[in-house]
Each structure stands twice: as structure tokens, then as C-alpha cells.
Amino acid sequence: MSTKAQEVALDQSLVHRFKNGDQAAFEEMVSRYWDRIYAMVHQLLRNPQDAEEVTQDAFIRAHRGLVNFRGDSAFSTWLYQIATNLARNRYWYWWRRKRDKTISFDQPVGDDNSTPLADIFVTEAETPEDATITQELVDSIADGMEKLSPKHREILILRNVKNLTYEEIAEILDISIGTVKSRIARARESLRSKLGEDFQ
């Protein structure tokens, strides 16, 4: 039995115990996954306080939702999805507050995140050095990201904001590496088309 299969089996056992009223089972889940969830969320938000709050919130929501968890996916995948959604919401809340500033493509996403905007929003127009994003274009990018399908939005954030490898993304989303690569390509193309003229 592989390590992955052992982990899934242990998770299934803990979920079963929890559904039968064993609160200690959930405490075991928290101790098993807290550090992994925190590390993933911190990778996106680059802020320890925000990462701590989002991680706590993810476990609160998991505790509430576990009674309805059907086990269609692995418990870990479900938990990562909850945390990813919460972190994404926190990130876009931050993005909306910041978007009234004029910023350039080679500027980092944030004070604590060194990923350049150019890495997230691939463009063939101007070079990152001389491309300046106006408020209008920043609004367009935020709107464009919101118009993407959840799958496309999620994969761009996992790859370009969290800097996760194809292998890590494949594991979190439970898809093949080939699917990860093609979905990223389609997501970038979709974002580019939604931004229209400003992005050409």
C-alpha cells in the first residue's frame, strides 16, 4: 500500500469516526493537516497573520461541512479546496483595495510577494519594463479574472500566485500533469480574450 493510499485510508477512518460523534477524530485531522494548509495559504498571501486566520477559517468550515462530506474526493483534496477558496477571496479583497494605484507590470504583486505582475498576466504587447498598468487595465484584469471559470481562475492562482509546481497542482486538484499544463494555457488564453483590446 502506497503512502498516499495509507493517508487516504487514515483520513477515511477519521471522517467515519467524526461522523459517528468522535470529536477527537477532528482534532487528529487538524494536527495532521494544519502545517500543510498553513504553508499553502502562506505561499499565496505571504502574510503570517492572514495565513493563520485563513487556516483557522478553513478548519472551522471543514468542521461544519464534514457531516455532509460524501467522500467523492479525498478529505485532503476537499480541505485544500476550502483553504484555496478562502485564500483566493482574501487575495482578491486585497487586490480590489490596491487597484486604485497605477503600477507597472514588473512591480511585485505585493510588499510580501515578489511575484511580478508580468508572471501572472502574460502579455505580448510591451515589455514588462515599460508597460504601465492604468487603473482601467487593473480593473479589467480583476474583472477578467472574476469572469474566468472557477477551474481557470484557480489554476492561474495556484501556478502564478502561489508558485506551485505542476506536480503539486496535479496532486491538489487530482488531475494529471498534462491536464495541468493544458488548463493553464487555456486559462491564460481565456483571460487574454476577456481583457480584449487592453490586453492585445
UniProtKB/TrEMBL annotation:
Gene Ontology process terms (BP): DNA-templated transcription initiation
InterPro entries associated with the record: RNA_pol_sigma-70-like, RNA_pol_sigma-70_dom, RNA_pol_sigma70_r2, RNA_pol_sigma70_r4_t2, RNA_pol_sigma_r2, RNA_pol_sigma_r3/r4-like, WH-like_DNA-bd_sf
CDD domains: Sigma70_r4
Hydrolase recorded as keyword: no
Taxonomic superkingdom: Bacteria
Residue intervals of the RNA polymerase sigma factor 70 region 4 type domain: 142-191
TM spans (from-to): none
Domain RNA polymerase sigma-70 region: 29-91
Protein name per Swiss-Prot or TrEMBL: Sigma-70 family RNA polymerase sigma factor
Organism, as annotated: Synoicihabitans lomoniglobus
